[in-house]
Design goal:
- Helix 1 (about 1-15) packs across helix 3 (about 40-55) and helix 1 packs across helix 4 (about 75-85).
- The protein has a three-stranded antiparallel sheet.
- It is α+β, with helices and mostly antiparallel strands and about 120 residues long.
- The termini are far apart.
- The protein has five helices and three strands, in the order H-E-H-H-E-E-H-H.
- It has helices at about 1-15, 25-35, 40-55, 75-85, 95-120; strands at about 25, 60-65, 65-70.
- About 65% of the residues lie in helices and about 15% in strands.
- About 10% of the residues are buried.
């Protein structure tokens, strides 16, 4: 569950800092955005943000009781994209689609030949 919160906080920070610059974000606003997805306390948020900074995924210019001045680094954006790609379900390969088309064509041709054989006889 902790890893889920980790990526949720990174995702929210990434959405709020889309211009790749530092943004001043209030902790209460972040908690409100996160409350829709998971239950998180302010101390947990602090721990996660400091952990993200330690892992060099975000840069924290300053922090006080109410706000963060934070920027999501390129390493954080890449990790978030990789995480989102993992969660997407795998699509059927195009080869599978070609096989289905071939199989349906074969069955239709076989039925057409059988009907022709019955009509001619």
């Amino acid at each position: 569950m902790q890893e889920t919160k980790y990526f949720l906080v990174l995702d929210v920070l990434s959405k709020e800092c889309q211009d790749k610059g530092y943004r001043i974000l209030e902790k209460s606003d972040l908690l409100a955005l996160l409350s829709n997805k998971c239950k998180i306390s302010e101390t947990e948020l602090d721990k996660i943000v400091f952990s993200l900074e330690k892992d060099e995924l975000v840069s924290l210019k300053y922090e006080d009781e109410k706000v963060y001045c934070v920027c999501v680094l390129s390493k954080g954006s890449k990790l978030l994209e990789e995480q989102k790609n993992k969660e997407k379900p795998a699509k059927a390969s195009p080869h599978f689609n070609y096989f289905i088309i071939f199989l349906l064509s074969f069955i239709a041709s076989f039925i057409a030949c059988m009907l022709t054989k019955l009509i001619v006889l």
